[in-house]
Design brief:
CATH architecture of one domain in chain B: 3-Layer(aba) Sandwich
Order of helices and strands of chain A: HEEEEEEEE
Shape of chain A: extended
Largest sheet of chain A: 5 strands, antiparallel
Strand order of the largest sheet of chain B: 3-2-4-7-1-8-11-10-9
Distance between the termini of chain A: 85 Å
Number of strands of chain B: 11
Strand order of the largest sheet of chain A: 6-5-4-7-8
Number of strands of chain A: 8
Largest interface: A-B, 43 and 39 residues
Strand content of chain B: 15-25%
Oligomer: heterodimer
Strand content of chain A: 25-35%
Distance between the termini of chain B: 11 Å
CATH superfamily of one domain in chain B: Thiolase/Chalcone synthase
Helix content of chain B: 25-40%
CATH topology of one domain in chain B: Peroxisomal Thiolase, Chain A, domain 1
CATH class of one domain in chain B: Alpha Beta
């Protein structure tokens, strides 16, 4: 008997799952994003037990399991802890045209790093430990993208 | 720990765009192979455990669609969402809870979705996801942190890729078996510095299954039991900026627990082979450090030494590793299965002589957030 599989072209069902979500930033996250939107300021929270300043701010310290009730104002520049340059543009993901960077950035006054984009670095080579500064969006909307990206700090002479 | 053994194992071929089979078809094939290997029928299975991920499958409660394929109608069945090393650890607990035999199967069809969109969704939806970060770019942050800290070079990472793709030539289920050179890896295009195309594992489809049994039932079937000597797992921080990305404290803690179970005090000399989740080439070096198979920062020197080559004194990823085929979730179980086959002496052309103690490692989450370590051996 002839194998019915031999001349088969397998059928595939193209689909797309599109489900609206409304993810709450929570009380702590909202205050943080509002400070960026309204005052161009970064805030962290301090653990009363170990003293770690969390950025982005956390409601609880994961190490001490204590409530972080104290707010701390941080600088808008800091240290680039590690980085990568994304070479491929993904149309549904990439917020900037490739090449652009991602960095873990430890802002001045913060005890932890946070993830953000890197841009405007063509003229200098990136290096771990270098100073970077935030570039804010002209029309803030109350989201983490109100910080457009970080760039190597232009030192004021 | 009461003794638990692997008494059967089955793997499908690992392939890209295996459109000829639905994921349930893959599960049926893997379970059948595991039962055949054990010399059992589905009637000999007391309890079933499945592994799947809804987001990868694009199905809510995706495990429901494999219940027939794993023979679990009228059986006690549960599901673990994460990597196969964690799922298999849960399967061990099912046996320790008193069930005689447990069939664990896990599947993945990476080809059916768009991997960067899926892995992007593991990041925080308020603070991270809109930045477009996903598995490759986040791992590149870790690779840079690790390489900067310890002076590990891109060439040393490339050697991992060369070794594992070469090892895969002797593994009939591998997807990317090929002889390549360090130059080939170094000249492949950057995806996200310092990670290049040939430092990355491929998109893959596949399924695997194992059968576990306790001491009473382990000897009742066809195969020589491979005993679980130790298991440990441990979790690190979710936010990448909270962690020291250059080292894995979670893996060190998981390994310590597994070695304690197994009575291993000097892993670097007592472990005969290791199978680690080299989803990116740098990870093999980092995970070997976390496993204590070399010192911190010595991963680069270890690959240079040739000791982890198939003919070395501590071969790593003789199967070809994840770099040669990475059905996510299944990959962790495949690390365990390779160790079991090597301990049993059934690894065919890639058999390493005299494997008494084998270590398998898997992880869940961005940059190896949660780590799981298994120690397998031939004696109770």
């Amino acid at each position: 008997m002839e194998d019915w599989r031999a001349a088969q072209e397998i059928l595939v069902m193209d689909g797309r799952i599109k489900v609206p979500y409304a993810w709450s930033a929570g009380e702590v996250g909202t205050r943080y994003l509002e400070a960026i939107r309204d005052e161009r300021k970064f805030l962290g929270t301090r653990c009363p037990e170990c003293g770690t300043v969390y950025h982005v701010p956390r409601k609880h310290c994961p190490d001490c399991f204590a409530e972080c009730s104290e707010w701390v104002e941080l600088g808008s520049s800091g240290e680039l802890v590690t980085f990568t340059v994304a070479r491929r543009h993904h149309p549904q993901l990439s917020p900037l045209e490739a090449p652009f960077g991602y960095g873990i950035i430890k802002l001045d006054g913060a005890g932890t790093g946070f993830l953000h984009l890197l841009h405007e670095f063509e003229s200098v080579s990136l290096a771990s430990g270098m100073r970077v500064e935030a570039v804010f969006a002209e029309e803030p909307a109350g989201a983490i993208t109100d910080v457009k990206y970080f760039r190597p700090l232009k030192e004021v002479v | 720990m009461e003794p638990v053994a692997i008494i059967g194992a089955g793997m499908t071929d690992i392939r890209r765009e295996r459109t000829s089979d639905t994921y349930a078809d893959l599960v049926f094939e893997a379970c059948g192979k595991a039962l055949d290997d054990a010399g059992m029928t589905i009637a000999d299975v007391d309890v079933v455990l499945t592994g799947s991920n809804d987001f990868f499958d694009g199905r809510t409660i995706s495990s429901m669609a494999v219940m027939d394929a794993c023979g679990s109608y009228d059986k006690n069945v549960s599901t673990v969402e994460g990597d196969g090393t964690f799922g298999a650890a849960h399967a061990v607990m099912r046996v320790l809870a008193g069930w005689g035999t447990c069939l664990y199967c896990v599947h993945h069809k990476g080809s059916e979705s768009v991997m960067p969109l899926i892995t992007n969704a593991m990041f925080d939806p308020v603070f991270e996801r809109f930045l477009g970060i996903e598995a490759v770019t986040s791992s590149a942050l870790q690779a840079r942190a690790y390489m900067d800290r310890y002076g590990i070079t891109e060439e040393q990472c490339a050697k991992v890729s060369v070794k594992n793709h070469g090892n895969a030539l002797k593994n009939p289920v591998a997807q990317l078996a090929m002889e390549i050179s360090v130059d080939d890896v170094m000249s492949s295009p950057y995806i996200s510095d310092p990670i290049k195309l040939l430092d990355c594992s491929p998109v893959s489809d596949g399924a695997s299954a194992i059968v576990l049994a306790g001491r009473e039932r382990a000897g009742a079937f066809a195969r020589k039991p491979v005993w679980v000597k130790g298991i440990g797992y441990n979790c690190d921080a979710f936010h990448l900026g909270d962690r020291d990305l250059a080292r894995s404290d979670a893996l060190a803690a998981a390994a310590k627990k597994a070695y304690m179970d197994a009575g291993i005090s000097e892993p670097a000399t007592e472990v005969d082979i290791a199978e680690v989740s080299d989803v990116f080439s740098y990870m093999e070096l980092m995970w070997l450090e976390g496993l204590g198979l070399c010192g911190p920062g010595e991963g680069g020197a270890l690959i240079d030494s040739g000791r982890t080559a198939a003919g070395g004194d501590m071969p790593v990823n003789v199967s070809g590793g994840c770099l040669s085929g990475n059905p996510v979730l299944v990959s962790g179980l495949n690390r365990i299965i390779e160790c079991a086959l090597q301990v049993r002496g059934d690894a065919g052309a890639r058999q390493v002589e005299g494997v008494g103690t084998a270590v398998a490692q898997g992880f869940n989450g961005p940059c190896g957030q949660s780590q799981c370590v298994w120690v397998l051996g031939g004696d109770v």
